[in-house]
């Protein structure tokens, strides 16, 4: 049995052990568990439309945190991007969507949703905004109203990274890979 210590002599490790003993007997409600420890919500397959793959994603993302990237059209400054995306966030808040916004560049922002099931409704709202160039959601790029003519490719996917192509070209040419710098320039 552990020795009895005076509570005034407890260090951080003793306090952590005491907390673990208290929490061991506690029943933690399912809503208080972190997202990765919660059981997944059951999926009702009768609601899935086989013609729309987005319906499957919508049901699988329900109740999970999801992030979407939004690009503001034109050449906005970071302050302009902050103002424009703030208006969009306010409109979504007024429509009872819980959205957090993070600016990640002079024309890019991340919208973080607590419930990913609403992501496609929010995406539809954003692509109908005048200054929205595109929305990236689950690897799919959706062009917005503010997209240039050359950017408006319907639902294009992200291009594969150039590094993967370069690696396959090296292997096919039989070039020996080493760590030494070469005089040859390689296109990125």
From TrEMBL:
Asked if the record carries the keyword Endoplasmic reticulum, the reply is yes
The UniProt keywords, alphabetically, are:
Chaperone, Endoplasmic reticulum, Signal, Wnt signaling pathway
* A GO MF term: low-density lipoprotein particle receptor binding
Annotated compartments: Endoplasmic reticulum
User: What is the native source organism of this protein?
Assistant: Oreocharis arfaki
Coiled coil location = none
Q: Where is this region: Disordered?
A: 21-45, 140-188
Annotated Acidic residues bias: 23-32
Q: Which InterPro entries match?
A: MESD
- Give the CC-aspect GO terms: endoplasmic reticulum
Question: What is the protein's given name?
Answer: LRP chaperone MESD
> According to the UniProt entry, which residue ranges have a biased composition of type Basic and acidic residues?
148-188
UniProt record similarity statement: Belongs to the MESD family.
Instruction: Specify whether Signal is a keyword of the entry.
Output: yes
**Which example biological process does GO assign this protein?**
Wnt signaling pathway
